[in-house]
DNA sequence: GCTTAGGTTTTG
């Protein structure tokens, strides 16, 4: 076959091209020159529909962008492909693929003036002796099952392209790796964000200084020391003072790794979603080895026992006390378990300003040192938690003797500014240096330095303040309401006695206590509601979905439905004994390269686990099966759409599913939002909404009634759609209910709830009943 | 949506 599809597998990171071939730069491409044994490489940025010429020959035109000079327009070139190759390419090629061609003809381009592309175009055909190599951008990754058995979990990852630091171009947004040569830990900038400056180097021997901003310091790279390795995604490259500079762009994300050869490869990140595969693992190991012999990593960290006067050093330590000094300086009292060999200074502060455990401050008085931090570091220092582990960068030791003393003492200053990476960083307990320090601190013998007597009054104070807090909380629950009305505040309260003796329908404002509620198992309160036919149903469990997926997997994928104008298809065969085929249809969209995980995909033949895995990695997943002439949704007892860990269902009664081609209209939008409501609509699905349905028994001393809570997200301020997959939200909801109706309390101790309720009539042939529903009510913000 | 900083020690 003249077109070779080169899939990159984990064991091969390089394109296996024949060795006699040499790469030709687009710049040097000229009509009439000899291009034997030369190849042209680029990214497919545009393709036209496959057509037939008058003589019946197939014809396919694509536009290729060179990798070398991404800004220059002349960097793109038209490729005209004829015959069987045209047909093959039309099937295989996707935007973003790397395309390599040899044996092409170079012809003067008649359209260069109009399209602004290269002055020549390439003609490619089997007759001309051309060969095409295509590198697809999606990867197949086989991961061993966590159980360690011989099964395999199948997973697809978006493939990122990483640019070496010597190939960065002004105005581009790129992904890259680098070894940290210099960094400033996140500090408060003069603008609205935290800032961190990071200088990277890599084996291309280029250097890149990046200025990173984010309102949340946790979103900046978690770099702890020079030599750490970072992976940046979507960093913007700009020219500044004649040098390339990196700066955060919209979707910036980073991973940071320990740079030590042999250390575990565990990414530090603030984002929950990231891709990290074997290939990346290998890259980190390679960079570690390179860095070990090519950049100077600082030696063992300084301890207080080894400080020298008049030097700068980084200290890893634990915070024991802190105190405000004046407007421009702040005191940190820290220790690292070793003793400074010189007399150290004591910064005088008022006892009431000193925060920290008095006993510990006293016990450690001979091992602790005072570090005075200035100016921009004050804000961060104030926010530090006592007991936390810190690395303080570039502390200045200064020797000075006070007027009233003979002996000179060492002072520790963290001066203002951020030169030389001066700053403070909190280290997590998982950090290996912290683990080591903790173990050491625990081994330090503090015997003999205890003095409990003077502490007793302080301890008493602490107990007392805790007691008053509880009292005030308890009083608040007694007097105020734990719920808030979101409307109709002008209405006056009505006693329950009046409510139950009045005719329905009506609306009331009431003040009552929650005697009890149903269901007690809160997860049972989540139902699916159809707003069209007003039906309520239970949320199907995973077994049902699994069964439907297995049933649909029996239908073989129809290859005629693969690779259309609006989606690219990829088929895999599982490596296990069953050899199942899984087909994924990636819906094309403009941002596919910068945001591969924003892709919506349709999957045929996947198992429950695989579909979940895909939903974790990609924006939306729709399970489908093939028919003769289109893809279609599965049975509506299965979710028709998965986004993250939320499963969206359609109403079986009200939906009239349409073929999947109807989705192409959304796919054609410039920036499709992939909103479930919108997707449901074009697919003829009436979306079921997750809702909490509960029965509250309310009492107020004059009477009692049962009121229904029917809530999508307003009452608990928790979306009903999220609760089943989040233990955090389940706990939050349980805590809220415990607050409204504390278990084991007498009625008098229950908090008041202010609610709106409406009464309504429920009639059938046999009986008539008045029911009540809570509305326009929410849990008070300070109760949550 | 924009800025912030843009490595190269304070002067307390």
From TrEMBL:
GO biological process, one term: telomere capping
Gene Ontology CC: nuclear telomere cap complex; nucleoplasm
One protein family per Pfam: POT1
Chief localization: nucleus
Subcellular location: Chromosome, Telomere; Nucleus
Keywords noted in UniProt: Chromosome, DNA-binding, Nucleus, Telomere
GO molecular-function terms, A-Z: G-rich strand telomeric DNA binding; telomerase inhibitor activity
Telomeric single stranded DNA binding POT1/Cdc13 domain segment(s): 162-292
PANTHER family: PROTECTION OF TELOMERES 1 (PTHR14513), PROTECTION OF TELOMERES PROTEIN 1 (PTHR14513:SF0)
Family of this protein: Belongs to the telombin family.
The protein's name: Protection of telomeres protein 1
Organism: Oxyruncus cristatus
Gene: Pot1
């Amino acid at each position: 076959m003249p077109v070779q599809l080169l899939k990159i597998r984990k064991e091969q990171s390089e394109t296996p091209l024949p060795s006699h071939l040499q790469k030709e730069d687009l710049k040097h491409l000229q009509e009439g020159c000899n291009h034997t044994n030369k190849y042209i490489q680029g990214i497919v940025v545009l393709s036209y529909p496959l057509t037939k010429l008058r003589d019946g020959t197939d014809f396919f035109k694509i536009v290729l962008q060179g990798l070398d000079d991404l800004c220059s327009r002349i960097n793109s070139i038209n490729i005209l492909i004829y015959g069987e190759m045209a047909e093959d390419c039309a099937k295989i090629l996707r935007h973003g693929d790397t395309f390599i061609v040899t044996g092409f003809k170079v012809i003067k381009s008649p359209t260069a003036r109009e399209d602004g592309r290269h002055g020549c175009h390439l003609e490619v055909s089997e007759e001309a002796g051309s060969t095409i190599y295509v590198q697809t951008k999606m990867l197949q990754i086989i991961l061993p099952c966590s159980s360690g058995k011989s099964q395999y979990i199948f997973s697809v990852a978006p493939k990122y392209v990483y640019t070496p630091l010597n190939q960065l171009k002004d105005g581009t947004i790129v992904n890259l790796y680098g070894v940290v040569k210099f960094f400033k830990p996140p500090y408060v900038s003069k603008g609205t964000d935290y800032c961190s400056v990071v200088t990277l180097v890599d084996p291309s021997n280029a250097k890149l200084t990046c200025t990173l901003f984010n309102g949340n310091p946790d979103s900046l790279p978690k770099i702890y020391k020079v030599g750490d390795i970072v992976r940046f995604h979507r960093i913007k490259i700009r020219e500044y003072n004649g040098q390339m500079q990196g700066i955060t762009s919209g979707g910036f994300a980073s991973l940071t790794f320990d740079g030590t050869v042999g250390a575990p490869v565990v990414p530090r990140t603030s984002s929950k979603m990231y891709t990290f595969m074997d290939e990346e693992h290998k890259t980190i190991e390679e960079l570690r080895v390179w860095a070990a012999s090519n950049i100077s990593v600082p030696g063992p960290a300084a301890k207080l026992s080894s400080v020298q006067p008049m030097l700068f050093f980084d200290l890893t330590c634990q915070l024991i006390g802190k105190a405000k000094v004046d407007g421009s300086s702040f005191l940190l009292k820290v220790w690292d378990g070793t003793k400074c060999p010189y007399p150290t200074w004591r910064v005088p502060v008022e006892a009431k300003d000193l925060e920290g455990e008095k006993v510990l401050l006293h016990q450690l008085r001979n091992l602790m040192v005072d570090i005075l931090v200035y100016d921009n570091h004050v804000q961060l220092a104030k926010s530090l938690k006592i007991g936390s582990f810190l690395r303080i960068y570039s502390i200045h030791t200064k020797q000075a003797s006070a007027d009233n003393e003979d002996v000179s003492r060492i002072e520790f200053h963290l001066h203002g500014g951020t030169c030389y990476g001066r700053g403070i960083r909190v280290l997590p307990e998982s950090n290996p240096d912290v683990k080591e320090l903790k173990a050491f601190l625990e081994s330090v013998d503090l015997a003999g330095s205890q003095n409990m007597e003077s502490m007793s009054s302080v301890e008493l104070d602490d107990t007392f303040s805790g007691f008053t807090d509880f009292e005030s909380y308890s009083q608040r629950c007694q007097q105020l309401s734990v719920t808030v009305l979101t409307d109709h505040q002008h209405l006056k309260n009505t006693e329950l006695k009046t409510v139950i003796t009045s005719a329905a329908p009506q609306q009331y404002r009431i003040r009552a206590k929650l005697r009890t509620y149903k269901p007690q198992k809160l997860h049972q309160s989540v139902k699916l509601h159809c707003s069209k036919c007003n039906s309520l149903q239970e949320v199907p469990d995973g077994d049902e979905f699994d069964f439907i997926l297995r049933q649909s997997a029996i239908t073989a994928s129809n290859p005629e439905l693969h690779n259309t104008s609006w989606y690219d298809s990829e088929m895999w065969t599982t490596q296990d004994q069953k050899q199942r085929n899984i087909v994924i249809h990636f819906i094309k969209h403009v941002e596919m390269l910068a945001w591969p995980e924003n892709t919506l995909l349709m999957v045929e033949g996947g198992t429950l686990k695989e579909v979940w895995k895909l939903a974790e990695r990609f924006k939306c997943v729709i399970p489908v099966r093939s028919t003769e002439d289109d893809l279609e949704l599965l049975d509506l007892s299965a979710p028709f759409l998965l986004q993250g860990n939320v499963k969206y269902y359609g109403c079986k009664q009200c939906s009239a599913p349409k073929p999947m081609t109807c989705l192409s209209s959304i796919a054609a939008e410039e920036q499709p939002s992939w909103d479930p409501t919108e997707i449901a609509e074009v697919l003829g699905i009436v979306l079921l909404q997750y809702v909490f349905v509960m029965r509250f028994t309310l009492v107020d001393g004059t009477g009692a009634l049962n009121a229904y809570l029917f809530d999508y997200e307003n009452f608990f301020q928790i979306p009903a759609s999220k609760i089943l997959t989040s233990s955090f939200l389940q706990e939050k909801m349980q805590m809220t209910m415990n607050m409204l109706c504390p278990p084991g309390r007498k009625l008098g101790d229950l908090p008041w709830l202010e609610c709106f309720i409406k009464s309504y009539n429920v009639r059938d042939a046999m009986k008539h009943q008045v029911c009540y529903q809570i509305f326009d009510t929410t849990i008070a913000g300070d109760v949550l």
